[in-house]
Structure formats: structure tokens, C-alpha cells
Predict the structure.
Amino acid sequence: MQMPARPEHRRRYLRVAVAAVAALGAALMPAAAAAEPTPSPGATPVNRAGTSFFTATPVNAGQPVQVAGFTGDYLYWSISGSAGQITEIAMTVTLPPADERSGPSTWTVDVFDGLRRRQACTAGAQTPTAAADATEVVLGCTLRRVRSWAEPWSGDPLPGTYYIRLSVIDLPESDIGLPIQVDMLINSRDGGSSADDGELKAPLVPAGKPGKIVTDAEEPVDPSASPSPVEAGSDWISFDWISFDWLPDLSVRWIWTTVGGALAAVTGVIGFSLTWRRRR
Amino acid sequence: MDAGAFRKTGATVGYRMPKDKPSKRLVLSMPLLSGHLPIATITDVIMRKRPAVLLLGLLAAMSTIALPPAPADGAEPVATEPPKVELVLDVSGSMAAKDIDGRSRISVAQQAFNEVVDALPEGTQLGIRVLGATYRGKDKVAGCQDTQQLVPVGPVDRDAAKAAIATLQPTGFTPVGLALREAAADLGVGETPRRIVLITDGEDTCAPPDPCDVAREIAAQGTHLVVDTLGLAPDEKVRRQLLCIATATGGTYASAQTPDQLTNRIKQLVDRAKDTNAPAPAQVAGNKECAGAPLLSPGVYADREKISEHRWYRVPVREGEELRASVSIALDRPVNRDYGVLLRATAADGRELVRGTDAGSERTDVLSTGLRWSASETDAESGPPESGAAATEVCLVVSNSFASPVGADGPGMPVELTIDVVPASPAPDAPGLGRGWLLLLVLSVAGLVTGVISGWVTRWWIATWRTN
């Protein structure tokens, strides 16, 4: 029996194995830490802000926001978030001259989702206090990674609109109404959606149109919409039961699993050959 | 749902696959087919076919996790009415004081008005009303009726408006409350919110009516009127009063200390009227209990709720649909330190389905919360038999835990309710497929082990077969 256990083969396997391990290591490396938000080149600055959820000014990531306001104003912006995104908000408020102010002030940046539910910040100075003689105060908030799906009962961040509200929550009353300058920059980075499954059918974008009260009389009653009784047995004749609904949708999982199967086959053959090669 | 579950699934698949049929076939058929052909040559062929390409393809497959497109924002509701603003200027005697960069308050205001009229955004309708501009006498009753509309709300004739502004002389009393009431009447009622910009340097000298009460009263009329206030003198009483007016109507307060600040702020407020010109929410009045509560379709609603009051609404939700509701209660009055809002969805029989809640203790403009709900399978099973596509009525109740030293007998606090009914997003099934490097590793090791075992078994089998 002729056995081709030439040494270069082993070296080749070794090389392939090393390459595979290297690729694996590279892929397992954590994503590079996020840098400071920088404005994207060519983005038009926004110099407006809304005063309520309803009138929030839409802003894009990387678009610098420069707004003149007054202490005590509640300034609203909105940004859209998609699955896998991590949004970072960096804000600098230039305070009124110290000689016009009478004490320290506490500022806050609140973030709400499309249903006006409060969202947590995972990092950043969300409620800093500016000393009486400070010239500016820096605020920041890093949101949780947006999920692609969540149970209705959960408060997880979902794709849709996010509202950002800047306000001063504590200050001497005599300091209200003094001019401030707000600079904001929002950065969105991809946090990966590998841990997610499922899909939100409609993003959390609030309805904007005025509602309409329906009276009991107009309540749609459609008798044809009620389900027809299930005809037992007919399925077996019509072959309607042959469907491919149970197959998962096309996704990256198919590639992973197929590649995994191929790898298993390859290593299986390698393993098989190893036991044979030893025999001379 | 979690990654661990997927990996487990993947591992099971990988383990079972070589063990069941394929391994058996390997053991039996390979030596027969190849007829003692060295197995290594097969692997040789596989490996020689460009392992680098294989590896590259592999890596490419792993890295292409496509980003989903950003969800498109819902179509902006288009307002059919032009934005309407009225500037209300105090021309009382105190406006003659020369304390803004050495210039009189009235001249600074006149300059600012001229610039605003020049820079008026296209399509914005502007009106100007003055108070305390004509009556020179001492009679308070007569002086407190002194308010006129200088420029009617409508498309602005710039020259005429400027000429009218130039004639203003600081004169009389300060009937702020009356002027606000008249300004609200000037702007009329329509489908979009209106804005009043009140510019004054002094306290109202004509109360009653107290301007803050007037502001609450016009805000409660459901005409969606916002009053932004600008103070021209750094005076504590003026600031309190203007803050109170602004808070009651959801407007802003600012104090202008330089001509530039005044001009820029008025321009900003006039621009804001244009930017925020959207149809106002529909008025609704919640019921005391769920039965008979107003039945809401998707959209935005406005209501008023008193402190510790419960307001009920109903929303029809069909099977396969998801209810989304959010509520905001505006703090239109000073409130005690700790407060909260609760939005509950209940079934018709009072069973709670889901709740949204938020609380706070700081200075804020609105307190809001929201909820999502869709009929789950277990709910449909345990609940009363539902007739398929027929709508279930979900009851929504808004309650609050505010406490306020004022306004207990006046109108309630403004409530904004947003209702949406969208297709439900069902819980994802276990995927049945795996993902991740661990999966590949487990599959490869399982393959290797199976290969080695089958190799040994084959050797043993051939050895037995030969000796026999």
C-alpha cells in the first residue's frame, strides 16, 4: 500500500491551521474603542432646536448643532436610531458671564425613545453641575445599543426616533433667562447586531397627525373578516401543508452553519487520514 | 434569544451530523470505492485547491454583517395654515428708561421690531399689538383698557408696519392680562398652534385679571397658544410674572440685556413658529372609567388632567396588531418636589396588561412615559374566546402624582396622548442555525474527532477482514 505521508503535507496543514487561528484571533478582538465624536465633513450645521417632543428638530449623526438659547429653555432634538447602533451625544453649554450669575447650576441631557420612554445613559456626564464661576459645562450620554427586537413589555432601545432634551434642572431662580450657547455633536457607531434576532415590524416613530375619535357606531365590524371554520382533513388532500415557513430566513447564519459543516467535513477527512498515515 | 442558545443549537447540529449517517457512509463506502486508494490524496486535492481562497471567502462571509437601513421617519404632517405670530409690545411709561447700552428700552424694541419685520420668513403671518401706548391720563380703569392692534395678523406690509412702529411713544399703564386676551382673539382659532411673543419691562399694573391666570385660561381653551416672554428689565417681580406666563402656556422666558440679544431672540421665536407649524393635536376628554371612554384611532390627542385625576380612553386593537401609546403631562404650574406619571393599559375586565411610568424631582417641562402592548398567544388562550379579527378594546388610563400649591380649582394640567396601532412584531423563533467562531470550532473539532474515530474503526475493520 502506498502512503503519501510526505512531510510537506504536514507543513501545509500546519500553515493552514496557523492561518485559521490567526483569522479567528483577529475576529475575536473587541471592536476598537470609540473615538471622540467628530463632525462629518460637509455636514450642514443645525442652528435650531425644538421646544417640545412634538417640535423637536431632527438632527443626523455627525451634524454639528450650534444653538443660541437662554438658561431655563428646554431644547429638543430628535435623531433616528437603527438596530445595532450605539449613539453618543457630546454637548457643551457655554454659560452666561459669571458676574451675571448668582450660583451653581445643574444641567441634564435626557434621552427618550419614540414612545417618550426615558432611556438610560451607559456612559457620559449626564447631569453635571457647573460651579458659579464656570464658563462652560460639558455633558455627554452614550446610549445602549439599539436592539432589533424586544418584547412589548420591555424597555429596551429599539429602532426608531430618539429625543434628546437639554435642560437646566437646578439653578437660582434669578439666573433664568440669561443667554447661553449650546454646541452638540452626535456620533453613531455600529455596536454589532450579532446577539439579536427578530425584527420590529414598525420602527418606534411617533404618529404626528392629529387623532380622530371614533364613535361606537363607526367601529368597523366586518363579518367577512371573522375566521372561517377550520376544515379538518382537507389539508391532507390539498398538500397545502407542504410549506417552507419553518426554514429560517436568509441570514448570515446560513453562511456560518454551511461553512461550519464544510469545515467539519474537511477536519473529518483530515482526522481520518491521520489514522491511516501512521501506518507505513 | 441569547447567543448562548444559538451556539448550543449549532453545537448539537454539528455533533449529530457526523455521528449519524455520514460517518457510517464514510466508514463503509470510502475504502470500497477508493479501493485502498490513499485517503490523504483526497485531502491533498482539497487542500491544494487554494486554501487561501477558501479562507478569504470564509472571512468575507463572516464580516459581511450588513447594516439595516435607517428607518424612514413617518411622513411629516403638513399644515395647511401659515404660521401665525403676534408680537405684543409694552409701551408703558417705564419703557422710556435709558438702561440698555445707554439707549431707551423703547428705541431698542423699535429697532428690533424693524429688523424682525425685514427678516420675516416667507409665508409667516405677523401681527403687532401694543399696550399702554395711547392713554396719557391717570385713571386706572381707562388706562387699563389701553391696548390696540397696530398691525393685523396677516401677510405683512413691511413699510406700513415700520411706519406704525416708529410712531410709538412710551405712555401709559401696563395691562398685560388684557393684551394677552386680545392677542389670543387676534390670532383666532385654527388647526395649528399660534405663538404670542410678549415683550415687557414691567409688572402688570392692572391686575385683576392676573396675567398668569389669563395665560392659564387661554391655554385651557384648547386653542394651542404658546406665549413666549421677553423681559427688558432685570427685575425679580417681572421675571416671576413672565416665567409664570411662559410656563402656563408651554412657552419660554428670556431676559434681553443688549439690543442684539433682543433682536436675535425675537427672530428665533418667529422662525420657531415657522419651524414648528404642524397640525395641533385633536382635543379629547377622557372619561372617569373605561366604559364609555372615548374610542381613539391612531394620532395625537390633547387633554387636561387635574392633579390626582384618572382619565380613561379606549383603543381598538385587532389580533396581530401592537398598541403603542405615549403620554406627556406638561408642568404648567409650580409643583411640589416629587412627582410621577403612570400610564396603564388594562383589558375590559380591569386586568392590567402593561404599564409605563416615570417620576422625577427636578425642574422640568413635561413628564412622559409610554407603553407597547400586543396580544400574546398565552393571553389569547387564557382570555375569553376572541373572534379572530374582531378588535379587542384596550383601556388606557392616565394618572399622575403631582402636588401643587396653586391652581387646584382651575383647569387641569395639559396632557398630550399619542396613540399608534402597528403590525405586531412576534417573538422570533429559535433560529435552528448557528453563528459565530465557537460554532465553527466545535464543528471542526467534532469533525476531526469523528474522522479519527472512523479512521481507527476502519483500520480495525480492515485488519479483522484481512486476517479472516
Notes: Chain B touches chain A through 143 residues (CB under 8 Å). The mean pLDDT of chain B is 77. Residues 75 and 278 of chain B are 12 Å apart (CA to CA). Chain B has 13 helices and 18 strands.
